[in-house]
Amino acid sequence: ASLYGNTERRSLGTRPGAVSGKFVPPVRRGNSGDNNCGQKRGAAAAYGDSDDGNEPGPYDHMMADPRFKNIDSKMVELIMNEVLDTSPDVHWDDIAGLLDAKATIQEAVVWPMLRPDIFSGLRGPPKGVLLFGPPGTGKTMIGKAIASQSGATFFSISASSVTSKWVGEGEKMVRALFAVARVKSPSVIFIDEIDSLLCQRSDTEHESSRRIKTEFLVQLDGVGTLREQVLVVGATNRPQELDEAARRRLVKRLYIPLPDQQARRQLLEKLLSCQNHTLTATDMSWVATETEGFSGADVAALCSEAAMGPVRAIDPSRMRHIALDQVRPIGINDFRKGVSSVRPSVCQDELKLYTEWNCKYGITR
Ligand code: ADP
């Protein structure tokens, strides 16, 4: 299957503004009383539990593991159903450009997961990696590639969902997440928008957010102590908002920049490889040059826009019956039109912030 096809991503949360998935939190905002009765009612409602609680759950067999002591079985079930991502099938070659970042990750985390015997002691892997940079540059793809290339179980979660949806339950959820990751080790926990989970302390900070953050850091400190391989990969577009304690723990901090011309060209070729098109090598180089400042996601959006050109040329009355081979190929003119309507989503000022932060805190090999 093509990388650019829809590999289903089961994520507990979504980016702000995105349509949320089918996830049903056990306790919704507003009914999160601190008393246990309230929580039980919430969980029971979410799962349609019978009151006697004798119904066997699909993960009961796992719960016998001592690492699940004091962990809510309903939370474990949620993690298995909603945070576990069973299809992180991304290969390094699928990710255009980013040669340095890929090489660093290979050495720092993929090989250690494959060969824990060689990578121990001084060569021990980091517990946490931070991928920072503009949106749409491949950070999520890298998280998936780490998991699929190292054969690790992949957990994918959006941090804003932990803090906003799980009011009153966030700490429990973080504990359960790490417990499941340990049991399913080797594991990669990918946390999108990690800045919203591990932001700097402020006077207006909610008490529950502070508790989630503390729990997260405690859990992060605890991984790897029992020869379990759990790697946390955080992604952020706002590295400057990270709490200092969190930043220190995410020891490998890698800048994932906008793609350069060569990477844009590579991406373009990949995206067009399964399409009917007439672009020559020179045309592709022209598009790669014209898309200076585009993120990988912007290049993908441009290709989608250009791909609509041939469809828009079809007379609407023929749309229902036209044969596929009668749809004209995508041409350079479709891209010419596309570059005037699809604009880069990241501005220069933002880029400056990333390069400055990278100079201060970024780490490569
Ligand atoms: P991020 O996590 O950095 O916001 P994603 O990894 O979710 O970005 O990328 C969004 C989409 O943009 C991907 O599905 C892919 O189509 C495209 N994309 C971005 N960067 C790259 C890249 N370096 N190589 C290939 N595709 C990319």
In words, what does this structure look like?
Residues 1-56 are annotated as: Disordered. This is Fidgetin-like protein 1. Belongs to the AAA ATPase family. With 365 residues, the protein is of the alpha/beta class. Helix 10 (261-273) crosses helix 12 (296-312) and helix 12 (296-312) packs across helix 13. The chain contains 14 helices and 6 strands. The radius of gyration is 23 Å and the shape is globular. The longest helix is centred in the C-terminal third of the chain and has 17 residues, at 296-312. It binds adenosine-5'-diphosphate (ADP). Adenosine-5'-diphosphate binds at residues 4, 95-98, 135-141, 235, 259, 267, 296-297, 300.
Topology:
Elements lengths: L35 H12 L25 H11 E2 L13 H16 L13 E5 L6 H12 L2 E6 H7 L4 H14 L3 E6 L1 H4 L9 H16 L7 E7 L7 H6 L2 E4 L5 H13 L7 H10 L5 H17 L19 H10 L6 H14 L4
Parallel strand pairs: 2-5, 2-6, 3-4, 4-5
Antiparallel strand pairs: 1-3
This protein binds adenosine-5'-diphosphate (ADP).
Adenosine-5'-diphosphate (ADP) binds next to α4 and α12.
Protein name: Fidgetin-like protein 1
Family: Belongs to the AAA ATPase family.
